[in-house]
């Protein structure tokens, strides 16, 4: 693929993200607390998450194996960061879930399509299109590399802890909704989403990859409307005072 075509794909992908961002303020993605029968046939959440997230893990692995840069330390480092996230998301996170929630197949398939495309553009840049001199060993001395890695792991820690808080809100057999209070939930109503957004922002800072910044935009476009809807639902269920001054997604900002 030429670099010109690659940039055109990124522009088109970003434009679709804008459409998704706007649409999700009017149509709530039908999984989790917003799942309804209107979304059609559904499968157990564990299976849905596994099938939705695993493809990107293998896409990145295949691209890395096919690349002449697979033995270079910097691309390999970024490969490990990316794969760490998706290994946990594909093969650990689903099996930590409690309850019998279900995911519509339509949502799962949309997630698969996005993950395949996103995994491809991330790997295409890191292993094939980035200037050869960019990811030399000297890149490890750049301040953005280490700031980005620190932010990546900070976001990952927030995301994992927030998921832990959510998983332990209910006792076995309980299906009621609860307002999470611990960790980042002191400041936002979607602490897990904030962690994921921070994680991929760190990845983009570390890699200086245009594809990674498109991923940050898509992460925000997908999660911000849902975080807003979750906050509104919490305000309806638990009251405005209970939610308080907590923001939707980004502490003190949004």
UniProtKB/TrEMBL annotation:
Pfam families: Steroid_dh. The chain crosses the membrane at residues 6-27, 47-65, 71-87, 107-128, 134-160. It catalyses: androst-4-ene-3,17-dione + NADPH + H(+) = 5alpha-androstan-3,17-dione + NADP(+). This is 3-oxo-5-alpha-steroid 4-dehydrogenase 1. Converts testosterone into 5-alpha-dihydrotestosterone and progesterone or corticosterone into their corresponding 5-alpha-3-oxosteroids. It plays a central role in sexual differentiation and androgen physiology. Residues 102-254 form the 3-oxo-5-alpha-steroid 4-dehydrogenase C-terminal domain. Keywords: Differentiation, Endoplasmic reticulum, Lipid metabolism, Membrane, Microsome, NADP, Oxidoreductase, Transmembrane, Transmembrane helix. The keyword Oxidoreductase applies. It comes from the Bacteria.
């Amino acid at each position: 693929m030429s670099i010109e075509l690659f940039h055109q794909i990124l522009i088109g992908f970003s434009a679709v993200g804008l459409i998704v961002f706007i649409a999700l303020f009017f149509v709530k993605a039908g999984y989790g607390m917003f799942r309804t029968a209107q979304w059609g046939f559904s499968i157990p959440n564990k299976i849905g998450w596994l099938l939705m997230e695993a493809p990107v893990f293998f896409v990145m692995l295949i691209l890395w194996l096919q690349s002449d840069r697979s033995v270079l330390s910097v691309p390999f480092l970024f490969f490990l960061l990316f794969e760490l996230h998706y290994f946990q998301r594909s093969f650990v996170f689903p099996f930590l879930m409690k309850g019998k929630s279900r995911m519509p197949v339509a949502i799962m398939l949309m997630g698969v399509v996005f993950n395949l495309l996103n995994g491809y553009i991330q790997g295409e840049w890191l292993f094939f299109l980035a200037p050869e001199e960019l990811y030399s060993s000297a890149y490890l001395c750049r301040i953005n590399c280490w700031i980005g890695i620190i932010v990546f792991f900070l976001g990952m820690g927030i995301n994992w802890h927030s998921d832990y808080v959510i998983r332990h809100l209910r006792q076995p057999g309980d299906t009621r909704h609860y307002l999470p209070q611990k960790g980042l939930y002191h400041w936002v109503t979607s602490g897990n989403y904030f962690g994921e957004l921070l994680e991929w922002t760190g990845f983009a800072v570390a890699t200086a990859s245009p594809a990674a910044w498109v991923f940050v935009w898509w992460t925000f476009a997908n999660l911000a409307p849902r975080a807003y809807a979750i906050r509104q639902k919490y305000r309806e269920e638990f009251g405005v005072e209970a939610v308080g001054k907590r923001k939707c997604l980004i502490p003190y900002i949004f």
